[in-house]
Amino acid sequence: MVRTKPIEPDSAAGDKSEQILQGAMQEFLTHGYAGTSMDRVAKTGGVSKATVYSYFQDKEGLFAALIQWLATEKIYFTVMNEEPAVVLRFVAKTILELTIEQPEFLAFVRLVIAESGRFPELAQTYIKNLAKPGIERLTQYLASRPELKLPDPEATARIFIGSLVYFQLTQEMMHGKEIIPMERDRLIDGLLHLILRAESNS
């Protein structure tokens, strides 16, 4: 079970916890989950081991907190009160730009996948904190737009995000962009066309 110790909401505590998380990110990417120790995290983060344990009860809790931090810092997007064409394009570009502009995030996803066989709970923490909230937010938005005439907003949200994730997987993570190349905007335009057809025909 993932356990984290609540962090006090003052700025000093926030800075210190982020310092630890940045150190943890470097260590997990360099040594993997099994090869990372709290001692290493403390050294890389420039804090004492006692300080690390004052914020995070154990390595599993630290990893979970790192995923939650990434969800907030890297891919959080607010469901805006804009028309679907604007929101969907924004969401798609936000997701796809992670692999281009945030190579550290891409490396972290590779790490989660690589470790998922030995540590399935880590992959589940990733799904709970990154994949699930994104699907839920997009589902809520699509359900709030009756003009789209979507029979199943959740399935549509999964298809939309799933297509973007598959694009990342084949183009960036598996180094396939020279084998099956496609421009990002072309993919986004295709997805928007599929979802917005009912609106454009009404």
What does this structure look like?
The protein is built from nine helices and no strands. The chain is mostly helical. It folds into two domains: 59 residues, Arc Repressor Mutant, subunit A (Orthogonal Bundle), CATH 1.10.10; 128 residues, Orthogonal Bundle (Tetracycline Repressor, domain 2), CATH 1.10.357. The radius of gyration is 19 Å and the shape is elongated. The N terminus is likely disordered.
Short description:
The protein has 202 residues and is mostly helical.
SSE diagram, text form:
Layout: H1 11-35, H2 38-45, H3 49-55, H4 59-73, H5 84-101, H6 103-115, H7 120-143, H8 153-173, H9 184-201
Helix pairs in contact: 1-2, 1-4, 1-6, 2-3, 4-7, 5-6, 5-8, 5-9, 7-8, 8-9
- Shape-level CATH architecture of the largest domain: Orthogonal Bundle
**The CATH topology of the largest domain is what?**
Tetracycline Repressor, domain 2
Put simply, the count of helices is: 9
The percent of residues in helical segments reads over 70%
Task: Give the mean pLDDT.
Answer: 86
Task: Estimate what percentage of residues fall within beta strands.
Answer: under 5%
Number of strands: 0
Ends distance: 50 Å
Could you spell the SSE succession in H and E letters?
HHHHHHHHH
> Number of domains in the coordinates?
2
Structural shape: elongated
**Quaternary structure of the protein:** single chain
Q: Any key phrases for this structure?
A:
202 residues; mainly alpha; Arc Repressor Mutant, subunit A; Tetracycline Repressor, domain 2; 2 domains; 74% helix
